[in-house]
Amino acid sequence: MARNKTKIAYITSDVTRRRTFERRKRNLIKKVDELSVLCGVQSCALVTAPGEPNQPEIWPSIVDAGKLIAQLRDLPSLGQDKQTLDQARFLSKGNERLKEQLKKVEKENREAEVKVALMRCLGGEGVQTADLDEVGSLAEGKVRAVAERIEWLTKSLCLAPLPAVDLQLRL
C-alpha cells in the first residue's frame, strides 16, 4: 500500500509541530544507529529543539560524539577538504565530467562520419580529400581486424591456413 507524498512546509500548529519533531528525531536517531551498526562506521547525531538551543540531544553519548568530533578536527586540513566540497569545486567537477563526456561524444561522431565517408567511397561516390587519411586508416584497421579474425578462426578450428590474399587498399 503506497503512502501519500508528504508536502514539505512549515507546520503552523505548535502541538503538531512538536509531535512531528519528536517522531522525526526518534526516526533520525534510529537511522544513524542503523548506519553505524550495519556499515560499521562511526557516527553521531546532534539535534537541538527549536525552543531549547542549550539542550541538544546527542547520540550515542556526549563522550562518544566528542571523540568523533575531535577525530574530525585532528584530520589534516587536506583530509577535511577531501570530505567536503564547496559550491565552486562541486561545479568544477561537474564541468570536468561534462567536458570528458563531450570529448567522448565528439570522438564517436567523428568516427561515425568517417564510417559514412568510407561507405560512400565503397559505394563509388567521391570522398573529400580531408577525409582520405581518416578513411584510409579506418579501412586499414578493418582489414587488420578481418585478418586477425581469420587467423584466430583457422587456429581455433584447426584448419589449414588460407592462401595469402593481398588486401591492399586502392583509393
From TrEMBL:
Domain (MADS-box) ranges: 1-49
Pfam families the UniProt entry points to: SRF-TF
Annotated GO CC locations: nucleus
Keyword DNA-binding carried by entry: yes
Single GO MF annotation: protein dimerization activity
Positions in coiled-coil regions: 88-122
Keyword annotations: Coiled coil, DNA-binding, Nucleus, Transcription, Transcription regulation
Gene3D superfamilies tied to this protein: Transcription factor, MADS-box (3.40.1810.10)
Subcellular location: Nucleus
InterPro entries on file: TF_MADSbox, TF_MADSbox_sf
UniProt protein name: Agamous-like MADS-box protein AGL80
